[in-house]
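Sequence in, structure out. Go.
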Amino acid sequence: MNTHPKASWIAADWGTTNLRIWALDEAGGILAHRSSEKGMGRLEKQDFEPALIELIADLLRDGEVTPVIVCGMAGSRQGWAEAPYMTVPCAPPSIRNATGVDAADPRLDVRILPGIKQLTPPDVMRGEETQIAGFLADNQKYTGTLCLPGTHTKWVALQDGRIERFRTFMTGETFALLSKHSVLRHGLSADDLDSTAFAEAAEHSFNAPEALTADLFGVRAAGLVADLGPAQASGRLSGLLIGAELAAVSRDFDLGNTALLGSDKIAGAYRSALTHLGHASRQLDAETITLKGLTLAYSFYEPEHS
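Output:
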């Protein structure tokens, strides 16, 4: 017999490639933490509810409604239900801005938090705004820069706890494409990244970002004529891309007051580059921050029929 504790509410981070859920009790204790590979990119609209139920069925109370607070790509145009963007400058969205989903299962009350858009220059985010809210829960009225590293890294300028502007850089995706589908792939290491080569390349590219594409081919050439090893080549490639990104960021954002929301090696690479360039930063766990943002949203939850 299944005796798993039942959730008071469910937090969900629904990305393009993965779905992560936390089942929580009323005191905020985590009863279960689960994930699946049923991200938005693999689902049609009719598939979202079954994908969610598959993860949480044993956590629901029969005959009762369980709130499910969702952030991320489930609210995109191709997602479960479109949650319209809010426009910067703005505070991070709250549950008051959420879109309700007409779920078939009467045990579910699903609310999808909106993303944020910027009109000039055009930019969007979905999911990161909840991380920002989680960060601000412990840093109210914060003024400074947030970096959310990933496949598409976000840089966010905050003023007194409001999102003033942001930019997205495809640096992570560019690294993946060059590593797998360009002439550079022949000389790179899939496992190792030389930290010295990374730091030197980041500094070089920060100071001369206009030479980026020439320097990228230089990684290939150095492997052929200067005995550049695979780990050094991978470090140099990563450093060149991140250094050029930081050069662009430095024109519009304060690098001297940066908080990194991320715990993987990508976030570590950004922190290493910032340190090498003389900028102190602090790093916070992205998963913890995401759950904190979803918990903040739930704290303002009100049933639709009370």
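Check: The chain has two domains: 9-126, 168-286. The first helix runs from residue 48 to 56.
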